Amino acid sequence: MLEVQNLTAGFLTAQGPLVAVDDVSFHVDVGETVCLVGESGSGKSVTSLAIMRLLEYDNGAIFGGRILLDGTDLVGLSQAAMRRIRGRHVAMVFQEPMTALNPVFPVGDQIAEAVMLHEGKGRAEAWARAVEMLRLVGIPEPEVRARQYPHQFSGGMRQRAMIAMALACRPRLLIADEPTTALDVTIQAQILELLRRLKAEMGMAILLITHDMGVAAEMADRIVVLYAGRVVEEGPVERIFERPAHPYTAGLLASVP
Ligand code: ADP
Ligand code: MG
């Protein structure tokens, strides 16, 4: 479903182009959970932003390669065309929910807005979807909560709301960039459980980005290991944990309790 081929991407700096992701290739099949792992600075976020074509908003650029989503190359699509792809085909959850939730609008309005934008639904139907999604992600009293503002939610509830917004248009692929890193351990486990449940119910594929091999062990069908902007190995989760082929992967595994 997603096929990243020889992606090279980075930033336009005063000193010239800075390559953060160097010739990266991997794929995500329908319904699969792939974990993109690697320590801080290895290029995970740049990869995810490139797939969403959001890198351009951060002085970044795709220097080369292809990003095929159901056979369509996203590289080179106009931002107008990308807006039709985001939401319905691929949606993203960020590490810090406040980067995606707007503090000045009620949470339900923001989810409804996404549904109206991506699916062209009317306000009433979009609002009903927003409430249904908040219920689905386990937010109590969703009719009441939908009228509240992000600051009235706890950190864990905000992350649930973010997931509700990302999944509101039932994308076939969800990209989650360190969705639990900002949360304490108990809430982290709840959010991972939620993602597993939603995946079972909705059947979307997940590209889960994490620096935590414990999270990867729990969630992944396959693991792609990034080091300094390059893929150093890739394989089924069992194989990676039993017989890591690259010393860098072995080092990452040594940090798992
Ligand atoms: P990760 O998500 O794996 O922690 P990133 O993808 O955020 O890593 O970063 C990869 C590399 O790109 C790092 O060297 C980082 O310093 C650099 N980088 C990230 N964002 C920017 C930016 N806005 N401008 C310049 N360099 C950046
Ligand atoms: Mg990151």
UniProtKB/TrEMBL annotation:
Membrane-topology annotation of the record: Peripheral membrane protein
GO molecular function, one term: ATP binding
The ABC transporter domain, residue ranges: 2-253
Principal subcellular localization: membrane
Location in the cell: Cell membrane
Entry protein name: ABC transporter ATP-binding protein
Lineage: Bacteria, Bacillati, Bacillota, Clostridia, Eubacteriales
Keywords recorded for this protein, A-Z: ATP-binding, Cell membrane, Membrane, Nucleotide-binding, Transport
Membrane-crossing segments per the record: none
Species whose genome carries this gene: Thermaerobacter composti
Family to which this protein belongs: Belongs to the ABC transporter superfamily.
